[in-house]
Amino acid sequence: MALMKLWVCFTAFCSVVFCASLLWTYKIQSRVFENKRQQQIRYVEYIPSTTSITEMEPVANQASTDGFTVTRTLTSKISGESTNSAIHNTDMDPRGDAVLIVTYVRSGSSLVGELFNQNPDAFYMFEPTHELDRASMKRHLTYTDNSQRTMESTGLPKKEFMTDVVKNLISCDFTKVPVNVLAPESPSHWFFIALGRHIHLRTYASCILKYNTTAEDIQCIPLIKRACDKSFKAFKIVVLRMTDLEPILRQFERVKILYLVRDPRASILSMRKYKLIRPVTLQKCNMTCEIVKRCKEHMIPDLVARDRLQSRFPGRIMTLRYEDLADNPIAYADKIYEFIGREMPANVREWLVNTTSGKIEGDVMSDPYGTSRVNSSQTAHQWERTIQPSLGVEVDSYCGEVIQKLGYESFANIQSRKSQERLRKDGQSNRVQSNAK
Ligand SMILES: *[C@@H]1O[C@H](CO)[C@@H](O)[C@H](O)[C@H]1NC(C)=O
Ligand SMILES: *[C@@H]1O[C@H](CO)[C@@H](O)[C@H](O)[C@H]1NC(C)=O
Ligand SMILES: *[C@@H]1O[C@H](CO)[C@@H](O)[C@H](O)[C@H]1NC(C)=O
Ligand SMILES: *[C@@H]1O[C@H](CO)[C@@H](O)[C@H](O)[C@H]1NC(C)=O
């Protein structure tokens, strides 16, 4: 009997402890961060939890026979904005309807990014981690409450710091994003506004252009926050690699990765053309080093990670070869929009036709990041005619595996195909000439 009492006491004690710990986690989860500057923007933080969460009225509670049901208030109740974030029985963050365009320098990402930049319903950011990538770990970064922090002081490696910034951009949690990221290169903001970037952030851009310092730019943040809150998001990212982004796939169930690749021989040639690789070693990395970096250090590990992540997160990674898009823009743009589960707006379709079909003349030379092309298909394959054979062979020697994995032709193949085409053409023109005689 005494044993029985002890057992009842023990179970009661355990339940109390369990309930208390649940309450405690719940409290942490729904911590509300209020901007210290009282900008009337408030944030709710979601921390992935192992408890299933049901969306409910503020003080409602639920009895449950098969365990516990935790109830909590969602963003809508706090910010007064509607919530369309369906919460599933999962421990993932329900926000973050976003696509990350993961790619490399000179790989056609300006064209792909433009598919979202032109979309009036999208919040598109062009290389949001660019500024941090160039910054030293000791640089003072300014936050929206006017506090300053260095990357070093957070104790995180740079890549992890940048991944966290991308996470906070996905959830529009701008109190945790350095203003230097949101309004880079004060006061000119060249990188942010050049060449028609961020066309749907014009109000915000004209605001940050009014001010001369990052501290003053803080006043403009509510404008970018508003644009972010109501849209689906697209980010072009060249600095972070597939493995860096894995935590984002784990945390946000709706985030997708559009993995954009281009023939490394074309990218390398294009980088040299736009002086992103210097012939003289002004930069530490010469041509050979750039080729090795691109293929051995970035593309191969990315491809390995992609295969692994694809099986872990089915349907959330799409690989796109830039050449396929350039050869067949509408068909592949449709595929991209299908992948993200949206309709391509009519103006995006029209813009794409204009840009890729040679209808508009673009000043490609002065615009290394630009998207204006005379005929996208011709431009994408132009390198085959202009690359020096020695460079073609060199890139193949380091990038053979990448070239093969992505289904591109080896340089030897391309050369023999070209020479056969030349022979055929010569044969034809000889025949034409002899017929004319
Ligand atoms: C920014 O600097 C320019 C030139 O020094 C000055 O004319 C302008 O008033 C400044 N703007 C603000 C908002 O302080
Ligand atoms: C590039 O640099 C490496 C050493 O860093 C050197 O061995 C190689 O010859 C250089 N290649 C070219 C093409 O300059
Ligand atoms: C496409 O080109 C036509 C003709 O130049 C122009 O009228 C139209 O505004 C362009 N559309 C877009 C979306 O760029
Ligand atoms: C663009 O160039 C490709 C390859 O030369 C050609 O097949 C295609 O018809 C061209 N497209 C237009 C719109 O001129």
From TrEMBL:
UniProt KW keywords: Signal
Tagged with keyword Ribosomal protein: no
GO molecular function: N-acetylglucosamine 6-O-sulfotransferase activity
Highest taxon listed in the record's lineage: Eukaryota
Pfam families linked: Sulfotransfer_1 (PF00685)
Domain Sulfotransferase: 97-406
Biased composition (Basic and acidic residues): 418-428
GO annotation, biological process: N-acetylglucosamine metabolic process; sulfur compound metabolic process
InterPro entries registered for this protein in UniProt: Gal/GlcNAc/GalNAc_ST, P-loop_NTPase, Sulfotransferase_dom
The protein's name: Carbohydrate sulfotransferase 1
Organism: Lingula anatina
Upper lineage: Eukaryota, Metazoa, Spiralia, Lophotrochozoa, Brachiopoda
Underlying gene: LOC106153297
